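Why does this matter for the project? Reviewers at the last site visit asked to see concrete outputs rather than summary tables. In response, this paragraph embeds two records directly. Each consists of the residue sequence and, immediately after it, the corresponding structure tokens. Nothing has been edited or filtered.
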Amino acid sequence: MISAGIIGGAGYTAGELLRILLRHPDVSLDFIFSTSQAGSPVSSIHQDLMGETALRFSGNINPEVDVVFLCLGHGNSIEFLKNNPFSKDTKVIDLSTDYRMHSNDHSFVYGLPEFKKEEIKKAQFIANPGCFATAISLAVLPLAGEKLLKDELHINAVTGATGAGTSLSATSHFTWRDNNFSAYKEFEHQHLKEIGQSVQLFQPNFNFEINFIPNRGNFSRGIFATTYTNFDGSLEDAKAMYDTYYKDSAFTFVIEEEVHLKQVVNTNKCLMNLQKHKSKLLITSVIDNLLKGASGQAVQNMNLMFGFPEDQGLQLKASYF
């Protein structure tokens, strides 16, 4: 049994972590740190946990925990770790953008298990990938691994309202989101750097544009991403390549059927479908942005770091109806 702490316990990703870790057979929750909610019952914020836990938010941390999850706003993790050192044995999993790029801190391993599983197993510090970056990187890494990305990538992806976090803004209010759809940060979303970094580690000579249009959907959770590029081989060639790449994956599956969000919401799965249209290979990928795109993947990384079964505590079921 390992002890775990959560920093920034009042947000969406922390809530998902709590739901998973409270049921994880190998984890004991030591503290849930929140400056805004210190002393309040955890279930007063994460109300679906009423009757399941008596834990309260804490204004203090235990620096000796075995693992700590940082669920802080982007830009805050570096400062927090600087001011709140943990023991030399504590493993750190950061869910923000702060350590995802190699230039920021080389001791952090980029935590995409389908990409760096063996490094994650040996790591003490993990930079958990972004949600868009997870869905899109999983769609293109088999091609990059075979050095078969020979043209621009074109990506259109839609995310649910929880992707914006709990802080309200003009575009996250219900009255704006409901019955609405919009694009944002066209061609310059922050996850582009992550995607490019992963692709170039596999295919260093890749120097084409990654054209990414993110969209806001009028649903709560999930990411639906379509990626296409020129591909010389047949559809059967592509399917064989993807099946080989993901044959040992615990959560990523290439399926024959067309994919949709209800297959993956409330799970840690990524489902993909491949189609060939003349010279174009189309890869459609779907994930839950809060689970495979954040907290579920963080627990998947924790399992690998501590030698637990990769899917321990993550046998989650989709809410199909």
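We now turn to the second protein, recorded in exactly the same manner.
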Amino acid sequence: MDNNKPDKDKMLYPRSSYRGEFSPENLMFNANLQEFAQKVSYICNLETNGKLSANQAYEQIRVLWKELKTSIKNLNLEQ
């Protein structure tokens, strides 16, 4: 069993505390936004290191952006 798993998870998937106006919807969107930012960071690093082409990185980020926009709609946070 890997006793370092919690430490690895904290390093690989950092989460910041939510400090905005509390509502379940805002909290959920914040979690979605943090996940979006983390995934975009990974994609950028893969592209920078030549593991993804610029077009592949763009397409993956575009899909993530659409998912984030959908979460805004689903959480009724559109203004």
